[in-house]
Structure formats: C-alpha cells, structure tokens
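Why show two proteins at once? Because comparison is the fastest way to build intuition. When a single record is shown, students tend to memorize it. When two are placed side by side, the eye starts asking what differs. So, the first record is below.
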Amino acid sequence: MSKNKLKLVYDVSIIKNGGSFSARRSGLFFVTLNVLKELIKREDVALTLTCNGSDFACIEQVLALENLEAKLEFEINRKFLLPYGRLKLLKKMASANKNYVKKIFLLLLQLIVFPVCKLASSFEKKKTFENFDADFSPVFIIPQEVQTKKYTLLYDLIPQLLPEFRSSSWKKGFWLYDLCQTLNHNDNYFTISEHTRKDFLKYYPEIDPKKITTTLLACDDHFKPNDFHSIEAVKKKYEIPLDKKYVFSLCTLEPRKNLERAVRTFVQFLEKNDINDMVFVLGGGHWKSFIEKLKRSINNLGEYKDKIIKAGYIADEDLPALYSGAEWFCYTSAYEGFGLPPLEAMSCGCPVITSNNSSLPEVVGNAGIMIDWDSDEQHIEAYEKYYFNPQPRKTNREKGLARAKEFSWEKCVDEMITTMKRDIGKGNL
C-alpha cells in the first residue's frame, strides 16, 4: 500500500437495502453505491469497507449483483457484538428469571462483564482505526471510538423543517434523528446541496462552517435518451396505453411530494381543455398511510380516475425509457435536499416541471419550468405550456441535457477526496 494513498474506511451498511429490488433501493442506497464505484476507480485511495452489525453476507450479495464483489473485501466491522448483544441477552435472562439467586448472579454479571467488554471493545476500535487516515459514512453515525478524521454525508433536515410531513418514525432509533443528536464542532461533513449546507449551519450552529463542504450529487451513467422500441416496451410492461401520451412522476409516494395537487391539477387541466390523449404515470414506493389517502383522492376524480396510472416500484433498468417517453416530468415537491429524479429526467432528454424552492434551483437551473409548489394555477399553466406548444419542450429538452452534463459522480467524489487530503495534510497527491 503506497504511503501517498489516502487510507479510507467507507461505510456500506445501507447497501444491504439493495437486495430486495423494492422501494428500499432509495436515494440513500444509490448515493452510497455510486460513491463506492468512484472510490474503487481512484488509484490515490486505499479503500476498506465497513458496516454496522453482521450484514457482510447480505452486502456482499448486493455487491455481486453490481459486479463489484471481486474488487472489495471487508476488513472491519464497527459493531462489536460482545458488549452490546451479550448485555441485551443478560438483561433479558435476568428479567425473565424467577430464581432470585440466579437473577442476582446475572445482574452482578452485567456489572462486571459489560464494563470490561466495553473497555476492550473501545481499545480494539482505537487500535484498528489508527491504521487509517479517514472514516467516511454516507448515511449513519460514525462511532465515537473511531480516532481518525470523520466525514459524514448530510442529506436534509426535512423532518425537522416540515413537521407536518413528518412520519411516525421521527424519534430515537431513526437514523437521521440519532445522527442529528451527534452533530458537533470537531467532525467533518459533506452536504448534497448548498441549500442543505445552510440549513444545517442554521439549525446546528455547533457545526464548524469550515468543516462542512457541499458536494453536489449526480445520476448514474445509464440515464440517457432511449429509442422508440425501448419506450414502447416499458409502456407495455407498466400498462401505459400505447395510444396515449403520458406525464411521468417518480418519487416516494408521501405527502411532501405534493402528488395530490399534481394529480388534481392534471385532471383540471384535462377537463378545462377537453383533452383525452394523456395519462399521468405515478412511479415509486409509498408510505402505507399516504397511499390509502391518495387512492381515495384518485377515486374521487370520477371519470378521470383511469387517467392516473399507479405504476408502483420501477425497476432501475426501466427508468431511462420511462423518462425518455414522457411528454414531461412533474416533480413539484414541497422541499428537497437535492432532487435526483429531475436530474435523471433531464439526462434522458425529458422536459421537467419542478418547484422553485429549497435545492431544486441548484439542480434544474434554467432548464425547466419552475413553479410554486402550492399553486394549483401555476401547475395548470405549466401543463398547458408544455402540451400546447412543442417549442418549450424542445428548448428545455436541450437545456436539460446540457445542464445534466454539469453533474457527475467523478466530480462529486473528487471534491470529497480533495477535501479529505487537504484536511489530513496530504495535499493533492
């Protein structure tokens, strides 16, 4: 291992979610995976993977699916099971035991075993991580015992900023909630947009502004314009009428994504202009509580409810064709930490309509129609502008393709590695 290489530990815990080919293959999974792919390519990085818990086998299966298994080996497991797993077992045994002599013995054992194991675990972690320059987590908390430079990727503060859209999972034990409790002056952070960076500095002043760097995301290389035959094939697969044009929306089906308004105004647009050649395709996983509400909303649309197609989870390989075949892509979210779907759409030559809030202007720039997320009127006007005039679609298709080329995972990871090298004094080796 060259002394000039950045010796980096990278946490791939979230990769295990990629094995189910469902909504769990979310943005967090794809960010972690794409950063990993770039790190592998770099000759100036000596890479070691780590994960929380005992998920090695599951993660290795996903890496095999991505053709990465031959290039990587696990060397570190952050979570030492002895002080944590054994302690839980002892507590469970003690609480369930009716023999008071045994119960007292088990409780005394906790007092002895746990401190000793915790001390040994802490020493082992310190000793292990002394061999590395930096520890980088794209999602979860880095343990306090790690003594290298720590870097964590921050996505957004949406549950905190928009409590009305918060799910019931926002509490202790939820990864983002727990992470926010650990933010501090000493550690280093990356953020996925400049808007997100400002949010974290505003709400967590304990973060050192010099230690938080914006590294804009990108989308995968396979997002590019598809041909007619590919588009026809995915329309058949997802039961989109071949004789209809379609608007596409891809996101987690949750309240913040503003889908009820997007769908309602689409129907108003159809009704107002007596249009019968278009449907609205909803793609993505969903919150169970919200999908029932959305179903009721669609069922209340009367004769127009068949104009809304709930495609559900879209396979990765089908997305470029669905983007390419859409008349336009609609993503008028109430708030985004970055907004990857509009970038994917632009990469496929699909005109976009997005909100003019949060980080979305950083992504779309002047390459799409940007509107107030809570304006019914502006939604309808945007639909009409694209439907009745091919020139805005053509112009934004070209602008979108050009804009998308400004984002790349190579650029994103290069910024991360340059920052790390600067911080540990390795310069631009």
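Second record. Ask yourself what differs from the first in the token line.
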Amino acid sequence: MTSLRQNPLPMKKFILACFLAVSFALLGAGPTTPRKNNAPKRVKADSSITQIIESFALRFAPDKRTAIFQIDAFRQNNHVILTGRTNLFGAKSFLLDRLKNEKVPIVDEIKTLPEPELEDKVYGLVEVSVCNIRYSPRHAGELASQALMGTPVRILEKEDNGWLLIQTPDQYISWVDRGAITMMNKDLMERWKVVPKVIYTRAYGSAYSEPSEEAPTVSDLVAGCMMELVAEKGDFYQVVFPDQRQGFVPKREANIYNQWLAGIAVTEENLTKTAKRMMGVPYLWGGTSFKGVDCSGFTKMAYFLNGIVLPRDASQQVMIGETIDKTGNWAELKAGDLLFFGEKREDGSERVVHVAMWLGNGEFIHASDKVRVGSMMATAPNYDEYNAKRYLRAKRILKTGMAGVGVLKEGMVY
C-alpha cells in the first residue's frame, strides 16, 4: 500500500478528493423519496402550564433522590399532552385535577411507577452481601449508595439490560444490577418480614455450605446482613438467602434478629463502640457498609447497628434531630451527636458537604480517606484544622419520636 507521504497528489488536493468521495457516497446512500410525516408537531406548552407542573414538583418531590416527578407538557393542536414519569400517584392525580381549571383538553401520557410491565413483582430483597446502587443503569455509573443482604426494596422500573430502578427503606431511588435482587410479589415480601431471621454482627465473614468453617463458602457476609433462619445446627445457624441458596453461619458471628434487637440500646456508649469498630474502613464514595463508607454512609451504619435508620446523605441527615450547637461550644455535645460541615452562603443558607460523629473530649470520628478520629482542639496532635474551620452545627438524633428517623422493628425489620 502506498503511504500518504508517497502519494503524488498535494496534501490539500488529496484531502479534498477524500471529502468529495465521502460526500457523494453519503448522498448516494440517502432515501430517494422524502419521508412522509403528516403528524401534527408537538411544541412546548405555555409557561402557565409548565409553572403549575414545576410548583407541584417542588411541593411533592423537593428531593429528587427520594421521589420522581419528571413531567413535561406539550401542545398538539388544541390539546396539552403530559409526558414523563412519576412514582407519586397521588401527586399526579392532584396535578390532573388542577390542570382542569386551565380549560384545555389534557392528554395523560405520564408513566406511573411501578411500571405495569413488572406485573406483581414490584418488591425485592437484596441477595448479595453488599448491593451497589448506582445513579445510572450501568456498572460504570456513579455509586449512589449500598444496601445489605436482606434489605427489602420497592421495584419501580426495569431496563431492557436487566437493571432495576429501586427505592430503599430510606427512600433513596437509584439503579441496581438485576443479579443483586430477588424479585417477588407482595405475599412473599410479607412472609419475609415475619419469618425468623439471623443478623450477621461481625465486621466480615462467610456463610458455608456445611456446618463447618472448612466447608466451601456460599457467600461472603458483612455486619448487618440478614438471612432467614431455618434451624440451629450445633455451633451454626442454618439459613436461607433471599434467592433460596442455603448456608451455615457460625453462631459466634451472628445472632437471632429479635434477640439482637431486644439486646441493643441506643446509648452514647454503644454508638461510640460501634463507630470505633469501623476504624480504618476505607473511604468509598457511595459506600454504606464495612466494605467501604463515605461520610454519611459511616454515620448511617453506626446508627443502623444500634437499631436506627438515618437518611442517606449528609444534606438529608442535617434535616433531622435537634440542633445542639452552632458556635463551637463543645461542652454542650454528647457522644453520638452528629457534626455537620460545609459553607455558609451570603444569603444565610448553608451547604452541607460532610458529617461526623462526636466522641467527646474534643474528638469526633468520621470517614475521610478512611474512618479515623480527629479533634477540634488546636493543641491536640490529631487537630483537624480543615474541618474545624468549616464546622456548621451539631445535632442530636437520640430523641424519642424524632421525625425522619426510622427504627428497626421486631420481626418486620423495617
């Protein structure tokens, strides 16, 4: 083959010849007759309609992480056509009623979730030790959160590639690989909620195919994983996973769920002990397990292992609890209080970007590079000047009846 350097055509003429050849080829490959499309064009609806939709989205779905209200409006002939999707059936009904006042025919093409194609399998259980939940339906998607084995989820949508749009007990909505979820109907979910269960309490471990730690592994496990209890075999619990695999878990590494729940107490001492068990766990954006945590994933796990379900993100956690301090009066804080960090805007609002847990004696524990302890005291060897300068407030979660806080229940788990 002749190289470009040896071609007798000057470079500009050669490029022009290639361009013309490609252009003629593309023209020759085009359709010989014009495409027929007599359907009337859709145009964006009037601002009065879109403003109503936006006000409903702000009212019913202010946090897009926990609710879907994605609706667009178009005009076609003398009609307004609504498209998009939502998992808020009531909000959609209110919107349709409100738009009747606009005295224009409304065509409802809004997709209501869960989608009908799922039929009755709109529930699921996490069947792997740690399920990675992503913002987009692909493995390369950004990690949004995690869910542990036995976590019940609501299934909203299914992509052609098998990925599922789910909502977790803390209301977080994101995508998960179909292979991590056992889909089921309502009856099976209700059964799962009440059957005897085992909770894994050690940081890391395994379930085995036989009641022996020398037997092949069925699955890895981390603290917080839950399985159905079948029987007790000597020093092992015989368990069934959500996808019906069976295994054996050493009793010294787990507990019967109801017994575990009855034995825990959400105290300053227990929160501190649980948090320190996670020392050195690596930082992982989106992580909420012993395999890796981000800042709010760490506080969420520390509270979860004491029976309390916090919202997922720091910007959500700051919305719950009782404000204890905003000025750095550390004497007012108790172990287990959450510290929030970020920036104060000129309009007086705050942007929360980080959360930690107070330990006492000027120290706090948080996930930053890894789970570690820092200090607010400038004279301390572990003084964290960066976070001390961006401290915003401290909040106390341990208050009966606090809105936004979930509590693990006997038998039903969530």
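One difference worth noting in the second protein: The mean pLDDT is 90.
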